Amino acid sequence: MKKLSFLVIFGLIILSETIFLSAIFPRISHSRTNENNFTEKGITPKTSSLYIYDYHYKDIEHEWEELGDTFLIGTVNITDDFFDKDDDYTDTYLPFDFPFYDKKFNRIYISTNGYVSFNYSSPDEYDNPDFPIKDIEYSYVIAPFWTDLKISNISSIIIYNATSDKWVLEYKDICDPFDNYVGSFELVLYSNGIIQFNYDNISDYTESYTIGTNLGDGVHYYQCDLGNTIEELSFILRNNYEIFSEDFEPGGSWENEWSGIG
Question: What is the pTM of this model?
């Protein structure tokens, strides 16, 4: 009995210290944790369709396309394509074949909840999972900011597809299901396979969200946590073939860039 009492008291002390430390050291804005599946360093990436590319994080200077303000040629406001402004989806075609993991796609399915799918035609899930996850519904997914979102009266979803090597999806002034303001973010796809994430302003968002990519086999994925507040931040994900093409020089060696746990 004394031993049990001691264990209970000890557990309460540990819990109290954990709560105390969490209050002093909360999740910091722009703090980043990266996770991806393990890829053996130094192996020349294969280019066959049987090879599954892995994705690696790289910081870049902040970029923002301003699609909602400039109305560039090739800019299309697709807000009205969503019949239901909450937990809905639509689809469109890319101006190029986009290489993603082991396949190429030119059709993309867009969710109001901050993610896109190349494989599942009705991506309406508001409950964001952690990656990796093995499920056809979550296969070939890119999530710039997957959480429970809604298109409110001030919100818009816009695409830019005027060039043959770049496609932009912008979530502008998006809100939560209760019409509380969440922020603005963009997904940019390049024909060479680079994936770019742009964040204009997401302030003090305390709900769960998912950022990253998921193949759907339960193994291949990338995921990161950017904290509660994300302001003027951009980064790219490069697959290892794109990195190899850029970094390899004849007579030299391949200096790969590695992020996360992989």
Answer: 0.78
